[in-house]
Amino acid sequence: MRRFLITGGAGFIGSRIALRLQEFYPKAYILVVDNFSSGYFKTLYGFKGDILAGNIQDKEFWNYLKSQYTSFDAVFHNAAITDTTILDQKYMMEVNTNSMKHIIDACIKWDAKLIYASSAGVYGNTEAPMKEDKGLIPENVYGFSKLIADNIILNAMSQHIPLKAVGFRYFNVYGMGEQYKGKTASMIYQLAMQMKSGKKPRLFKWGEQKRDFVYIEDVLQANMKALERYEVSGIYNVGYGKARSFNDIVNILNKLMSTGYEVEYFDCPYEFYQNYTEADITKIKANLGYEPKFDLETGIEHYLKSLKVI
Fold this sequence. Notes:
Blueprint: E1 3-7, H1 12-24, E2 29-34, E3 50-53, H2 59-68, E4 74-77, H3 89-110, E5 113-119, H4 141-159, E6 165-170, E7 172-174, H5 187-196, E8 202-204, E9 210-211, E10 213-215, H6 216-228, E11 234-238, E12 244-245, H7 246-257, E13 264-266, H8 282-288, H9 296-306
Parallel strand pairs: 1-2, 1-4, 2-3, 4-5, 5-6, 6-11, 7-10, 8-13
Antiparallel strand pairs: 9-12
């Protein structure tokens, strides 16, 4: 029997991983861990595994898990503070960075492969396309917390050779399961909901900021390939590999929803804002066989149909 643990399993990506593992490995034992501060129970409708409420930064919680569970094949670590506007540096580092040491200790004990969520936030406003080994200049504490967690993993693997770990620097992920994220849901979701309710889509001036939007199905593909290729370790970008503008999103939504909304532009209120992100996905293609299947048009159409918007 395969055995998997998912932290942040009631969140957007974590819940989709739990349900995909259940689909691919119907006889597996799957344990979801979440403190339900931002995760939501409805993301796990249809999940048949076990759920434990707990905080990943709590060492005693990890001691409990290690005492109660003898082994896991893989730990999918997705729990984190994901709101990039939070400026409490101590809190961000305690949750996103310090907790990594507890997780590594548990993976070593269980001989489990660690597959975890990093972030494209580690690159800040460095030149695109972003490559894994350069431009590591985060401009907020969220990106910094993820970068230092990456460093902790790389150092641990160099000191403990049997440890296998794959870190995914996710670019702008969107898709089913994010509708419970509130203000941190993707702009694709937020714009679609504005337009569905009869409101004009609102964008920062002048909507030409670009992002590498990656659909949740491609994110799940990357996670399953990291599990299948058990011996492969490293840190990888996960994106579509091509940046698109926010104006592009509105144009696609107008076409798919048969609407003709004009954009209402307003000033960006943030001192730090990434104007252009694009993933170089050469490394993940070569090492994990990842091939994104959903361009922005295909992904948004699939998403809107899933949401029953079209």
